[in-house]
Amino acid sequence: MPELPEVETIRRGLSKFIIKKQLVSTEIFCDKSFIGKPVGGIVKGLRRFGKALIIDLNNGTSLMIHLRMTGQLIYDPGTEKSQRYAAGHPSENFTAKLPNKQTRVILKFKEGGTLYFNDQRKFGFIKIIPTNEVVNDSFVRKLAKEPWDMTEQEFYERLQRHQNSNIKATILDQTIICGLGNIYADEALFAAKIHPERKSGSITKQEAKLLLQSAREVMDKSIASGGSTMQTYVKADGTKGDYLELFAQVFRRENQPCPRCGATIQKIKVAGRGTHICPNCQRKSSKK
DNA sequence: CTAGGATCCTGTCAGC
DNA sequence: TGCTGACAGGATCCTA
Fold first, then answer.
1. Is A152-228+245-277 assigned to CATH 1.10.8.50?
2. Which nt sits closest to A120, CA to C1'?
3. Distance CA A262, CA A249 (A)
4. Predicted confidence (pLDDT) per residue in A30-51, tens digit
5. pTM here?
6. Contact yes or no for A42/A135 (Cβ under 8 A)
7. Would you list the domain boundaries of chain A?
8. Active site annotation includes A80
9. A181 touches strand C (CB under 7 A)
10. pLDDT tens-digit profile of A47-64?
11. Strand C proximal residues, A:250-279, Cβ < 7 Å
């Protein structure tokens, strides 16, 4: 579930805790969640490719982590409970006693910290790959550019190549444009006033430009505030800051008034995904 | 090549 | 209470 802004926030946050620390043990509770042979080593740095997080070690190997729908990374420094850093799919696990039923992998550091990889649905994984082969990984290799790196012209041309697909399905495809997930796709389409069921081939150059800019803006805004959908530091009182409630204009706001025009936001199904629209701002047929 | 649907897995919630 | 189906912030695999 974490989308690009969440993974970027995780990357930045986790970097502060684990860089230069020595990974010394790996406990695997679910074989499906860990691919390859566990390794030890000192953390050199953290990178991100789309929604995939890479932890580079000083021994030529890297950990690729993809949280998919329900993955979480929870770092416990082993000292103060209030210092826990939790990110990913929001749930009680952030503050729960760990490990628990959903803990799939535990990484322990020599200095005392513990990184828990929790994942309710087991779609996510940690994979060991040689550092110099990360860019050749089948997932990484297929990723398209992120919205900030793509020109309006290139985005428009890519949409034209998938002219018979719904625009929402098209922008969710990481090989067409990278980083958007179900939340930011809905938010970007709303911001650009484009109905998610429009055929990608019907999107004009002007609309493509607006959509690309909107994608950048909604994700920029989210990154700037630490990921729209995750809490960062778990407070001592255990409260969860659900920033999504403040951030989202349409996502999970069905039956509420559109913040732009006041019409009632609807939830529909597009490309097999729950989709939120303002039926007034986002019209399927071209305005006339 | 594109487009659409099923699928991986666990958990929760609405409805009967 | 118990059952059943729908659904969930992702990506891949299979089919046409």
1. yes
2. B10
3. 12
4. 999 999 999 999 999 999 999 9
5. 0.94
6. no
7. 4-140, 152-228+245-277
8. no
9. yes
10. 999 999 999 999 999 999
11. 269, 272-274
